[in-house]
Each structure stands twice: as structure tokens, then as C-alpha cells.
Amino acid sequence: MDKIMKWVEDKLVPPMAKIGTQRHLLAIRNGVVSSLSLILIGTFFMVFINLPIPAFAKALAPYTATIVLPYRMTMGLMAIYATFVMGADLAKSYKLDAVTGGILSLGTFFMFQVPVNVLTPKSAPLGFVLPMAYTGASGMFTGIVSMIFAVEVYRWFKTHNVTIKMPDQVPPAVSRSFEALIPGFVIITAVWLVRDVAGFDLNSALMALFKPITGILGNNLFGALLPMFLIHILWSFGIHGMSIIGSLVRPMWLIMLDDNAKALAAGKAATNLPYIAPEQLYQWTVTIGGAGATLVVAILFLTVCHSKFLKEVGRFSIIPGIFNINEPMIFGAPMMLNPYMFIPFNVVPLVLTTISYLAVKGGLVNGFTTLPAWTLPAPIGGYLSAGNDWRVVVLILINMVIAALIYYPFIKAYDKHMMEQEAGEAEEGNETAKTANANF
After folding, report:
1. What is the Cα–Cα distance from 268 to 264, expressed in whole angstroms?
2. Which ranges in 180-220 belong to alpha helices (H)?
3. How far is the first Cα of the chain from the last one, in angstroms, to the nearest whole number?
4. Given this model, what pLDDT does residue 48 score?
């Protein structure tokens, strides 16, 4: 066991930690996170029109297109929002102007989209319109490429002083606009030549490239287990696994969720959606209370432990854990670098992922289609995310029981160790007190 932990600490953790601080990945993460508020608002409307009340659904049917519009304008435009923030964040990391970086990234992204000239109906032609096929989660990969290309070109011109400089008296907004002229012209022209003149469709190419990976992650048990394994191994050594692994796979998770939502809206059965394992599978049925399903650990600390320390950790961790904030448990127990907790902390997510994956694959519960607020308690969040399916609540409760059974012997061993340590400290304190009294 010690050899395994040393190998992981020496060989696996350092390169993964380095990946976690890579500026492009940080920009991707920040761009996705920045758009979550709008996505949460949009998914509320998707949940609303899918309430499991037949009479209610029938009454809403004539108004479905109108009610779902906020969803289309939030989740359906997610790549636009994220691309601007990613570009701004990457530019800022290079100490460049953030607004310019965001604008150039967004302009590049739009250049990769081809407007369609809609001339029908003839009585009121729409003219050129921008298709939404790749403005949502499906366009995230194009947004990432646009951000990297635009900001790196902007940085090259800025580093080599190939920009138009205005006098200091010119307002900053005007100065920034002129500064971006040369790099912006090069960026837009280059993308125009690639997309329009050469006819290369980056959106389709990237989707074709990543489709096998998305399929492996979303519809393959090994692919579903791999992110959980890596996230929890990193957490075991004090590194925020979701920040690193999430930055790599979240664009694909979002595509899975978006495709599931589209399939449901098109009339596909909720138990037969395109993808089994978008992020919400893990969020609501696996990492219950946070990484490692540590809400269960807090409950066990409070109910079966006798150590004063562990009971105290359980007390201050359980309320945050209900709302999926588990840093108090991760750093308080601690779960990281703890030989008693290493095995269950890494095994529980793999077991729960397997159970949840098979439950969705077998049609025992609905697939996941919406993105409720991540701070909701798991039964509520899972119920909403799976199209208001009460069976997901049952699955979550079963998973919590299974997690408790796995954790129990390890927690009891840890409890015994802590009680012995506390007893030793108490005895040492008594001896010190006796010595002080004797001297007095």
C-alpha cells in the first residue's frame, strides 16, 4: 500500500498538477464556469416543461416553443458566452488586454460559422441568419480553437510591437481598438481563407474527431470510470482533481448533456437517450456531497465514531456536504494523504459509477438532460436533472447505503486510531498537570 501511494505521489501527481496550472486549460475552465449562471436559468425552463404531470404537459403543449426559448438562448448559445470569457482570461494571463482578447476570440468563432440566406417566406424574407447548430455545447471545441488561435496571434503581434500605437491622450477604449487592428485583420483574414475560400468546416471536423472520445466517455463503462479514477487519485494527494480533469473533459460532457436534451425534446424516450454518462451522472449519483461521496463519511463520523475529533469533523462537514461542498471534510478529516481513507475514497466512486452507469444503460432510471444548480442536495438535483424521475432518488439512496458499507470498516479503524491518539494525549496532559501541581 505504501509503495502504491509513493508511486502515485512521485510519478502521477507531479505531471497532473502541472497540467492543472496550464494557462489554456485554466482559460477553458473559467470560460465554462462563467456561463453556468445562464445555463442554470435556461435549464429551469427545460425542467418546467417536463414536469411529470400529464394534464400540465397537455396544457403547456401549445406554448412549448415559447417556454423553451430561454433554454435555447442560454444553453443554445453557450459557446458564444464561453468563447469570449476564455479569450479574455487567456489574454489576461499573458498580461494583454482582456477585452481585446475576448473580442478577437469571439470574432474568430463567428467567422467559423457560415450564415444561411433564408429567403422564405417570400413575403417576409429573413435574409442572412446564423444557424444555432454550433453555437451551443456542440461549438465548444470550435470556441476553444478560436480562443487559442486569436489570443496567440494577438500575443505574437503585441510581443513583436507590430501594432498601431495611439498617443497617451487617446481614450483607452479607442487605443485598444487601434491596437487590435493589425492582429485582428490577420486573424479574420486567415479564418476567412480557411472557412470560406478553402471550404474547410472546422465545426464538423472537430465533432468528427472527438466523437469517438465522447462515445467512449459517455457510452463505455471503462470511459465512464476513467475520469472518476483520475479525479479521486489527485484529490487523495491534495490536488483538486475536478479542476484538472474537468477542464479536459467538461466540453465533451456538455456536448453529451446537450445531445440528450435535444433528443428528449425531439420525442426520444428518457430511458433511451444518446449518452449514459454526462457529468450529471457523477454529480448526482456518485459524488454525493462532493468527491468521494463524503456526505456519507460525515454521517458515519457522527453516528458510529467515538473519537471527539471525528465527531467534530462530522458536525462541521455535514451541512456543507448536503449542498455538495466537501472541502471541510477533504481537509478536515483529512481525506487526502490519509492511509485509512485512501482505499475507500478511491473505490467508492468506481463502485457507484458502475452501479449508476448500469442503471441508466438498463433503462431503470432516466438519462440526464438538464443542469440544475450544483449546490442542490443530491436527491433534488438528481430528480430534476433526470427529467423529474423519482427512481433516480431511489438510486441515490441505494448508492449512499453501498458507500456507507464500503467506508464503514475503514472509518472504524480510523476511529480506533484516533481514540488511541486522543487517549494518549489526555494521559500526557494528566501527567503534565500532576507534575505542575507537584512543583507548585
Report:
1. 5
2. 181-192, 202-219
3. 49
4. 74
Q: What's the pLDDT score for residue 272?
A: 92
Model confidence pTM above 0.85:
no
Residue 127's φ and ψ, nearest 5 degrees, are 75, -150
Q: Are strands 127-129 and 116-118 parallel, antiparallel or unpaired?
A: antiparallel
Encode burial over 134-151: b for 16+ CB neighbours within 10 A, e otherwise: bbbbbbbbbbbbbbbbbb
Nearest to 417 by CA among 305, 296, 337: 305
Question: Distance between CA atoms of 14 and 11, rounded to whole angstroms?
Answer: 7
User: Letter for the amino acid at 241?
Assistant: G
CA distances from 205 to 156, 210, 216, 283 (A): 27, 9, 18, 30
334 prior amide bond cis, ω within 30: yes
Report the C-alpha gap between 365 and 271 in whole angstroms.
6
Amino acid at 39: I
Is the pLDDT assigned to residue 276 strictly greater than 80? yes
The CA distance from 268 to 271, in Å, is 8
Could you tell me which of 296, 263, 303 has the C-alpha nearest to residue 387?
263
Q: In 3-state terms, what secondary structure has residue 238?
A: coil
